[in-house]
Amino acid sequence: MAIPSLALAAYQNALSQSGAIEAKVSRSLAKPAAPAEGFGQMLTDSVKRVNDMQNGKDAMVQSFASGQTQNVHELMINLQKASSAMQMTTAVRGKVIEAYRELVKIQF
Q: Cross-referenced InterPro entries, in alphabetical order (predicted)?
């Protein structure tokens, strides 16, 4: 008894789809690779960038005050950037301290 070509094609199509599904499931079950950079390193880099912005701001203010540069527009932009970065860092610090206090309150 010969299998009709339409039924054979449907069977092969179903087999290929099941293989694709198995591959997709095995990829989803695979353990994700460890991040190249940890949270601590990311936090350290962020704090360094904020510190660099503060140092750049101080240098620009000193340069402007001494008369070496007269670009008020650039000075104001850098002052705002440094101020915003410091406010964000302070807000994150506050949230971390708040989370720590909540964890301390948990009773076992």
A: FliE
Inter-residue contact 11 to 50 (CB < 8 Å) = no
**Cβ contact 57:79 at 8 Å:** yes
Decide: 75 and 101 in contact? Cβ < 8 Å. no
Residue with tokens 């190249």: 36
Contacting residues for 98 by C-beta, under 8 A, at least 6 apart = none
Query: pLDDT digit string (tens) for 87-104?
Result: 999 999 999 999 999 999
Please answer whether residues 50 and 83 qualify as being in contact, where contact means their C-beta atoms are separated by less than 8 angstroms: no
SS3 label, residue 89: helix
pTM of the model: 0.59
